Amino acid sequence: MLQNREQALSLPSPTVINFLAVTNSLSIVCGIIVAAIVFYSKYRHMQNDVPLAFRVSLYIGLIDAIGSATRLFLNRVPSDYVMSPTSSKACLYIITFSTIASVALSNAVALSLHLNVLSKNLFKKRANWYYEYVAIALSLVLSTPVFFLYDFITFSTLLREFFMVAINNQSTILTMALSYYSILFIGILYCYAVFAHVCIFSFFPQFQKTNSLTQGSLNQSFVHATPHQKRKSINTIRWMLLYPLVPIISDTFFVITGFFPTLPGINNLANILSTSQGILNFIVFTLNPKFRDLYFYKVIPVSRQEASSSISTQINLLPNHKF
C-alpha cells in the first residue's frame, strides 16, 4: 500500500485487486469472529480475567479488521475519485497503525515467551498484564509521523498506492525507512529471534547443555512434573510460537519491498500477505488449547486464578534456562 520507488510502479491487475478484496473481507470477518468468541468466553466461562493470548488475539483481530476495512474501501473507490490530503493522511494512519500494532502485539507474546521460557524472569506474571497495552500505546505514537514528516500525501486510485512527498525523493525514502519500515523490521527481527530460540528449546532439548548460562536440560528440569504436564507444557509453548510466526509470514515481504527495489509480482505478494494477518490470527486463536478445552472437549467455568495463571503455570514447569 505504500509506494516510494518509481521502478515498482505498475497497474494492478483486476485479479490482484479482487484477491486483495477477498483477503481483506475474510480478515474483517475473522476479526469479528475472534472478538465475539473472546467476549462470549469472558462473560460465559471466565469470571473476571482473560488470558494474555485471548486478549492479544482480540486486539489483533479488531485492529486488523479496522485496517482491512480501510484497505477494502480504498481498493473499491472509483478510479475518478479524488481523495483530499487530509483524508489520505487519516486512511494512511489507520493502515500504518494496524500494521505496527499487529507486529507489536505479536512481540508482546514473543516477549512473554522470552521472559517465561528463556530467562524465567521473576516479574513475568505481573508484567504480562500490561504487555498488550504498552504495544498498542507505542503503535499509536509510532504511527504519528504520517501527520508531520511529509509535505504531501495522496492516494492514487489508479495505482491503488499511497504516495508521500517530503523535501525530495531521497528524503522521502529515508523518512519512510526510518519512521516506518525500520520499526517493522525491528519487530519482525525480534519475532525471528524468539521463534528460532524457543523452537530449539522446545523441539531439540538435547542441545541444551548444562553450563554457566543454562542450569539444566529440558528433561532434567521436569523431575517434579508428570508426563502429562510435561507434554501439555511443551505443546502450549509450541502453540504460542505461532503468534510471532504470524508477522513473520505476513510482513516480511512487505518490509523487503520497503527497503529494496522489487518486481511488481513481489510487491503484489507483499500486499496480499499483509492483508492475510487477520486470517492467520484467527487460525492461531482456534488452535489455542484453552479454546479447544472450552468449546470442543468440555465446558468448565474458569476462575480468576485459573484464567490468570493457565499458561504461566504450564510454562513454570519448564527449566530455568538463562540465555
UniProtKB/TrEMBL annotation:
Coiled coil: none annotated. Keywords: Membrane, Transmembrane, Transmembrane helix. It comes from the Eukaryota. The chain crosses the membrane at residues 16-40, 52-74, 94-118, 130-150, 180-204, 240-263, 269-288. This is G-protein coupled receptors family 1 profile domain-containing protein.
